[in-house]
């Protein structure tokens, strides 16, 4: 293993952006890197909400069908952008922090190949097994058919979702948060008119219904892939595509961290998926649509936290690569505190105005009641979700994901088993929602205590 270069000797020779990541005051630097990401990720997530609003005009079955598919689509976004994407950024930033620029170039090439393979794999899985998966989540009848139409369109081009996120992660690994954010923003702006145009049609463009929403998402991903690929190939990025021979170690560095991170992402989506199934078993399609719409706000928090977490991956990774462990820990908890404040404000606002949120998407009383109850109970603890997820991103940067994974399983156990038990005893959805809220609090608290105790650096040579 190549030893890290001491900061005092490395700083004069490294890229100016890397030098600032190693020396600048933490909070101002984190805010400077995070704010464009947060705004742009909010814009991207908002386009999903706009699409939901348009699909709601197609009826409750279409809205419920989209709710069934949404966890699977978000899983892909979280795996491509947060899990494997975080693995890419972490590996590249640690290489740059240690002065190994050629290794960083090679990692970029390996990352693209890996993302192509994964995108094709998930396309095959969902096209072949989409129906039984959505049936297992409680889908049936017209809502199941709507889910399959939307899912088949989206997953037919899943390779572009993976490629766009992989290329953006290569750029972010160099500490450049602005360019991927600009690409995301412009794509989101274009998606706003394209989505209803394809859903409802206009002039020579036929109305495609819920399939149009899926096609709009694919066009957005394709455009982002082209622009980000051009940026790296043009030489404007600090890391380029290495042309050396492919090495197993290059794939392993990314795949190992990405696979473990993916399990954490899967746990988040499985938690929501199981809760959706429990709601479906207890109540009707209206409650499923209401819960799915309300839970979308929790998914909206993920891009917000990612806006802070992406620079945390690069900052923590770069500082650990340079041997600055104490600074890496301070970066982690500074980012976690910032995430807590932002997501708690959003959660409390949703809990105070839940009817206003739900009324944007449905007028059916069953859907509104189920969604309002969820937001009033779970919304006030959204800050803990922000805290835990941001520490997960920091752990990605450190390359240490055992504790985030263990805490993810703990959250799943409390939400799923505790939720089922509470639902059985209380006979209402409120018991399930209280279990989901408790799971968030325990998840983030245990993870924060573990990182504070020094688990990142145990069993390492001094």
From TrEMBL:
Domain of life, per lineage: Bacteria
GO cellular component, one term: plasma membrane
InterPro entries linked to this entry: MATE_fam (IPR002528), MdtK-like (IPR048279), Membrane_Transporter-Flippase (IPR052031)
Gene Ontology terms for molecular function: antiporter activity; xenobiotic transmembrane transporter activity
Entry coiled-coil feature ranges: none
Keyword Chloroplast assigned: no
Protein topology in the membrane: Multi-pass membrane protein
Subcellular location: Cell inner membrane
Entry keyword Transport: yes
Keywords: Cell membrane, Membrane, Transmembrane, Transmembrane helix, Transport
Transmembrane segments: 29-50, 62-86, 107-129, 149-171, 178-202, 208-233, 254-280, 300-320, 332-353, 373-394, 401-425, 431-451
UniProt protein name: MATE family efflux transporter
Organism: Neorhizobium lilium
């Amino acid at each position: 293993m190549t030893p890290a270069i001491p900061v005092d000797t490395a700083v004069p020779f490294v890229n100016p952006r890397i030098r600032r990541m190693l020396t600048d005051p933490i909070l101002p630097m984190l805010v400077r890197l995070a704010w464009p990401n947060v705004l742009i990720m909010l814009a991207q997530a908002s386009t999903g909400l706009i699409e939901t609003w348009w699909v709601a005009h197609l009826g409750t079955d279409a809205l419920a069908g989209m709710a069934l598919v949404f966890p699977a689509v978000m899983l892909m976004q979280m795996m491509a952008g947060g899990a494997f994407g975080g693995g890419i950024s972490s590996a590249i930033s640690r290489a740059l922090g240690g002065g190994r620029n050629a290794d960083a170039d090679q990692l970029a090439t390996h990352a693209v190949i890996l993302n192509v393979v994964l995108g094709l794999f998930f396309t095959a899985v969902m096209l072949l097994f989409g129906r039984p998966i959505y049936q297992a989540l409680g889908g049936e009848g017209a809502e199941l058919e709507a889910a399959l139409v939307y899912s088949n369109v989206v997953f037919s081009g899943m390779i572009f979702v993976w490629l766009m996120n992989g290329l953006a992660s290569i750029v972010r690994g160099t500490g450049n948060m602005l360019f991927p954010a600009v690409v995301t923003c412009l794509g989101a702006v274009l998606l706003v008119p394209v989505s209803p145009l394809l859903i409802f049609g206009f002039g020579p463009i036929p109305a495609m219904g819920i399939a149009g929403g899926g096609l709009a998402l694919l066009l957005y991903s394709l455009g982002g892939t082209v622009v980000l690929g051009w940026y790296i190939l043009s030489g404007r990025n600090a890391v380029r595509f290495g042309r050396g021979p492919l090495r197993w170690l290059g794939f392993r560095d990314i795949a190992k961290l990405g696979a473990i991170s993916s399990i954490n992402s899967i746990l988040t989506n499985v938690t929501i998926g199981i809760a959706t199934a429990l709601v479906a078993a207890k109540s009707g399609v209206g409650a499923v649509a209401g819960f799915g719409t309300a839970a979308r706000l929790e998914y909206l928090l993920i891009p917000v936290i990612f806006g802070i977490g992406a620079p945390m991956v690069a900052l923590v990774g770069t500082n650990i690569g340079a041997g600055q462990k104490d600074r890496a820990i301070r970066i982690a908890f500074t980012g976690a505190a910032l995430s807590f404040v932002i997501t708690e404000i959003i959660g409390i606002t949703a809990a105070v105005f839940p009817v206003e949120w739900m009324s944007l998407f449905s007028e059916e009383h069953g859907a509104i009641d189920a969604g309002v109850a969820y937001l009033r109970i779970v919304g006030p603890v959204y800050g803990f979700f922000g805290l835990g997820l941001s520490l997960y991103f920091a752990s990605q940067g450190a390359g240490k994901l055992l504790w985030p994974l263990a805490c993810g399983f703990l959250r799943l156990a409390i939400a799923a088993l505790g939720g089922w038990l509470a639902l059985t005893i209380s006979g209402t959805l409120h018991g399930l929602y209280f279990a989901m809220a408790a799971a968030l609090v325990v998840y983030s608290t245990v993870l924060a205590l573990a990182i504070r105790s020094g688990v990142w650096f145990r069993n390492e040579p001094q």
